[in-house]
């Protein structure tokens, strides 16, 4: 079985952040997708990740280097995160939690 750290651009630190957030397999990462996985790490992990983790997650799933992702998809990924943040605020204003 392939380990998270075996994916391109992910290492032991990234793997630990993912497992701390309950993402324990490559299959689970693929099912969640990079954005949801990053948000889960941000919400549940003891360490707040930088955007570099998001770029690395996208790169790992797409087979690209994280710097390529950062250059080509940065604006799109940030907009997706901002959209999630707005949705999370909406849920919070109604006393609910948005779970991934």
TrEMBL record:
In what residue span(s) does the TfoX C-terminal domain sit? 2-80
The major lineage groups are: Bacteria, Pseudomonadati, Pseudomonadota, Gammaproteobacteria, Vibrionales
Q: Please give the organism.
A: Vibrio mangrovi
**Sorted alphabetically, which InterPro entries does this protein's record hold?**
TfoX-like (IPR047525), TfoX_C (IPR007077)
Provide the protein name: DNA transformation protein TfoX
